[in-house]
Design brief:
By secondary structure, the protein is an alpha+beta fold. It has helices at residues 2-25, 31-48, 92-123, 160-169, 171-177; strands at residues 56-65, 69-76, 132-139, 153-159, 179-182.
């Protein structure tokens, strides 16, 4: 009986050691690591349009999905509202101007975000190289806006290793390494 109990304890100890070793080998992505990317993305977007202090309407939120990678979402309004208490209605000219601005700023986002994804990959050390780095940009709009021909969401996605390799190779390689999807 003592031998069975001793062997059972040995097996349990070996199993526990194996689980601990496997857990230690799998890097964990902490909330602090994600917060660095969240803040960086918010500041990058706010800096794109100095005339629109409210471009980020909901701060970036990041999470890590085991076996997939890091996902960051941000709500952006590329067009500053022209309405106020003293100017409660929008003219047709303002709607046209806002639509033109929206189209230009969506293009600016599509140009700037691939580098932001690559920069995030470089700062997310605990994320395994085969995992994805994904940014989802939700594009908000005002009720009076003409959003014809513009997306409601942009997704920027790339494999961490490919992003790091592309970043070392230059801007053109970064653009190639990031898949951009419009919804």
């Amino acid at each position: 009986m003592k031998n069975i109990l001793r062997n059972l304890m040995l097996v349990v100890s070996v199993c526990a050691a194996a689980v601990c070793a496997a857990t230690a080998a799998t890097p964990r992505v902490s909330g602090n690591v994600l917060k660095i990317v969240e803040s960086s993305l918010d500041e990058r977007i706010k800096g794109m349009w100095p005339d629109n202090l409210f471009s980020v309407i909901r701060a970036t939120r990041g999470l890590y999905l085991e076996g997939y990678g890091a996902v960051f979402t941000v709500d952006v309004n590329p067009v500053l509202s022209t309405t106020s208490m003293m100017h409660p209605t929008v003219t047709k000219e303002e709607v046209v101007k806002a639509h033109k601005s929206r189209i230009e700023r969506v293009a600016q986002l599509k140009q700037a975000m691939p580098l932001a994804v690559a920069d995030a990959a470089a700062s997310l050390d605990p994320v395994p190289p085969d995992d994805q780095i994904t940014f989802v940009v939700y594009l908000a709009y005002h009720s009076w806006e003409d959003v014809t021909g513009t997306p409601a969401q942009l997704t920027f996605q790339g494999k961490k290793k490919a992003l790091l390799d592309a970043k070392r190779a230059g801007a053109a390689a970064v653009v190639q390494a990031v898949k951009v999807t419009e919804y």
